[in-house]
Amino acid sequence: MMAQQGILIVLSGPSGTGKGTICQELLRSYPNLHYSISATTRSPRFGEANGVNYWFTSKEEFRTMISEDQLLEWAEVYGNYYGTPRRYVDQILADGEDVVLEIDTQGAIKIKEKFPQGVFIYIVPPSLGELAKRIYKRATDTPENIERRLGCATAEMNQVYSYNYVVVNDEVPAAVAKIKAIIEAEKCSVARSSELISKICNSVCNG
Amino acid sequence: MMAQQGILIVLSGPSGTGKGTICQELLRSYPNLHYSISATTRSPRFGEANGVNYWFTSKEEFRTMISEDQLLEWAEVYGNYYGTPRRYVDQILADGEDVVLEIDTQGAIKIKEKFPQGVFIYIVPPSLGELAKRIYKRATDTPENIERRLGCATAEMNQVYSYNYVVVNDEVPAAVAKIKAIIEAEKCSVARSSELISKICNSVCNG
Question: Which residues in chain A have their CB less than 8 angstroms from residue B22's CB?
């Protein structure tokens, strides 16, 4: 009897909604959850380790991964490649464990095309006004950049209909609790329970 | 701004799986959850009150409810009618609160036709062998009845594919926790969050 497949959880949303913090808290409070490590061709920064922060690869290796369809999604940013290797994700899921990945909206949509059985969760701010406040608080952006990011956030909200769930990041612990409930519920979905169902049906003689 | 609609939770499954106990525990641990009271034409038994255990109605009233499509499902058992009045359910859901009802497989399938937006949860025993033990333990059935009920349970397991979720009743508290996670997750589903999404999108100017 095969174990029930794990679940790929994709956390996404407009930038500035705190999906990174939520992802970290989720990993901390759910020890069996694995974090999907991205591959990149950029050089390691101080303190970054291969297989922890990223899989650091050469451009040649990365292009091979693209051509062999080994990536769930990839993008080129300022001359470097970034992507999500499929093999690592597949392996964990086959072992019956869950994987989370945190990615921008464009990446999430690409992953959904290749991996529709993932659970796609859109993290949103309580309001776009609140998002503006958060971006202002960071105070690392110019007013033009803030305006641009808010404009993007408004446009990105329309992407929500490509997702399965929407979670408001009002308080991080509450948002994490919702995501944990979503994972638990998904494990009970009939679509993911075919092994359980056949086990019960076959248990008449053995039970 | 309208409140988010409540959710109709339908608990069902083969007889003997303990869905009644689960329903009671769920109601106890979730004070805002409402129990859908059935209508019946049978006479009240000692201690039963109208609007608590059942809505006691005349056959004439019941037939009017059938003809006016006021019932989510109904059945005739030993000359008496039993059914689920739609109005009470609709009213609670419109107030943004949730309703649970516990019903046999046939009733659940009928409700799904009229109310596909409900959350249909199939409660199953850990194994059909375990179900046999539970039925034997009750010791209220003849061996023939037990055989018949087990046969039905096996056939009914095929109905699981009409449901959204399957929950194993191994331990009641664990099963109740799963159902609560399902309700919480459903509240985050994009399909049920249109009001939340438009609220966020409209918050740019007001936020």
Answer: none
